[in-house]
């Protein structure tokens, strides 16, 4: 059984980059019938894109492309886990915890938040729940999840959200360090101003708090701070890896092997690193597989390599989830 537990329908900000990437995704599934780069070819793509924009974020025709690719990939379980920052109900939560002041970084992040925080969480939940039968008919279990940014002290906001909806699982993640969105390519020069070891120590401290909050079934991409290749000598991070592995084991929380950084970021490495993965295995931390895809043509990407990494590190089981209950299945049954 092959699974992908970290899949996004994420849309926006509605930039030309988003337009181009969405058009590329549509072209991965459809043929215009015209020669590439002709006027007719462009007119057809423009019609598709006009429809895509009009349909909005949560529409069955868009999700059907994910289902089509999941079936091609032989996936048996898929989880949709859009980011909490997409939903208007939680905009104050992010405004409280990220930098949105009048300096350059604050203005950049304020603009980003205003552009991406446009939907309702109730709309998302009802849409995914309504689509489960279509996936089941294709032999694929569709799971409802959420990826929620954890901030130190954010439990009072997150706990009611976790309890309020019929999640199959909730993912906790860290994308901000001291209020700065460190995985934004437009702000990566800030790494040059950091004591890297200190930055990792502070960020891993927050990751540990997320784990010990026990709000989440999975804590995601544990070392995504490395996205742009900024990392001290990895041996210096081993004590931090050990600490996180102990926290996961003691709290009964799973993590994931996430291929997203491998194919979408300059570091070209999965999360966690292989050294980190070995330490997680030594501590008996349960793990699942995730592509972190944000478009339908990326679902399942590089998960075969992820499974190879798991076997190499000594894993023979993988975690699956339904109604917030974890089940381990044999890794050799994933094929």
Main beta-sheet annotation: 5 strands, parallel
- Share of residues in strands: 15-25%
Q: How far apart are the termini? A: 6 Å
Low-confidence stretches: none
Number of helices: 12
- If you compute it from the alpha carbons, what radius of gyration comes out, rounded to the nearest whole angstrom? 20 Å
Shape: globular
**What is the N-to-C succession of helices and strands?**
EHHHEHHHEHEEEHEHEHHEHEE
Percent helix, as a range, is 40-55%
Name the average pLDDT: 96
Q: Look at the helices and sheets and give the structural class.
A: alpha/beta
Please provide the count of β strands.
Answer: 11
Biggest sheet: strands side by side, in what order?
Answer: 1-2-3-4-7
Features:
335 residues; alpha/beta; five-stranded parallel beta sheet; two-stranded antiparallel ribbon
Q: What's the gist of this structure?
A:
The chain is α/β, with parallel strands linked by helices and 335 residues long.
How would you describe this protein?
This protein is an alpha/beta fold. 44% of the residues lie in helices and 16% in strands. It has twelve helices and eleven strands. The strands form four sheets. A five-stranded parallel sheet has the order 1-2-3-4-7. The mean pLDDT is 96.
